Amino acid sequence: MADKVAFELVSPDRLLMSVEADAVAMPGMEGDFGVLPGHAPLISALRAGIIEVEGAGDNPDRIYIAGGFAEVAADRLVVLAEEAVPVADMDRANLEQRIQAASDEVAAAEEGEQRRLADGKIAVLQEMLSAAR
Amino acid sequence: MANLKELKNRITSVTSTQKITKAMQMVAAAKLRRAQEAAEQSRPYAERMERMIASVASNLPSLDTAPPMVVGSGKDDVHLLVVVTAERGLCGAFNSNIVRAVRRRVIELRNSGKTVKLYCVGRKGQESLRRDLADLIVEYVTLREVRQLSFANARPIAEQIAQMFADDEFDVCTVYYNAFKSVISQVVTNQQLIPVKLPDPEAIAAADSEVDLGGAIYEYEPEENDLLGVLVPRNMAVQIYRALLESGAAEHAARMTSMDSATRNAGDMIEGLTLTYNRTRQAIITKELIEIVSGAEAL
Fold first, then answer.
1. Nearest CA of chain A to the CA of B212: how many Å?
2. ipTM, 2 dp
3. Residue B226 counted as domain residue
4. pTM of the full predicted structure?
5. Contact: B219, A43; criterion CB under 8 Å
6. Domain count, chain B
7. How confident is the model at residue A56 (pLDDT cuts 50, 70, 90)?
8. Partner B contacted by A16 (CB < 8 A)
9. Which domain holds residue B174?
10. Residue B121 located in a structural domain
11. How, if at all, do strands A76-81 and A5-10 pair?
12. What is the pLDDT of residues B187-205, one digit of tens each?
């Protein structure tokens, strides 16, 4: 058994990160989980939150994702995320601005699906903001 | 003489046209390289997504409870055709090939009594389709302002299509785009998005054998059907993104080849015109000489 997890972070635009890590903590949709070498095979949906990577050298160790999927198999962990930003790179002023814009959207949106989408957007942004603290 | 001057003007104008087509060809070549890189970089995500879906689908207890996007709405009365074309012309038969394929499909579907709706992505397709099929176009998205295509361009389109499906506005969704086969060949391709074509068993077996699980089986969180319900709409966005990328690369390739032949044509034309110019010039000189000689003889 290998003593490292091969961790890959992939966005639709490109492969963002491919490192060997000691452990990775994931924000699972049905509860957070950690992945250590030798984890049982698992496919899980992820909610918006922070991925924490341990023991990956100089690479960013805290990465925010806006939801996605994780696949664990044979000491390998693949994360598919549509939006991924290292926590260290997040800009609070920019985030607050985006939350403001999203709130305006909620105010303008009609009841129903559109409203629900806008609400979801705010929740995601607020999660980002609290992570940036 | 007026004729000479006219010829000279024509040579100048063809030369400047040639310069433009040459420049356009070089721009297209540079853009093509970038588009190909983008397509390459998007591949890991699409591949892994496909493997996940294959794995989940192969472990589905039964198809009856699967989300409607997978099994369809149970009818096939209303067809939505997503037409991906370029924003600009001057790229050979690139746009007209797509439009022709879509027209043929529309007639086919109408003849078998189905309703057709069109979702246009790209200005050129919309412009030529609205001439005779304007009442079928339900949506038009232009990517004119987009300089570098990214996933953020594909996601809203996918979300809107998913919303339309949820509102029961159509039953089957197919996307038409030019696939990039090679620099000199683009192929009109259609791909069904809804209901989703699940990977065939062979592909599933191949995906399984790629990862050695040591006999263990995957655990799914949330359970298979719910997971598939989240995965499938995401995958649709990925498929649309791929169609946009392919179409982008194909467009630049088509423009490159057509501008190359335009440059060559202009070259041939300049050659011909220069020949005529020189001949006319010599004829004039000869004529003048004859006039002088016969004038001198008459004295």
1. 7
2. 0.74
3. yes
4. 0.83
5. yes
6. 1
7. confident
8. no
9. 25-258
10. yes
11. parallel
12. 999 988 888 877 666 666 6
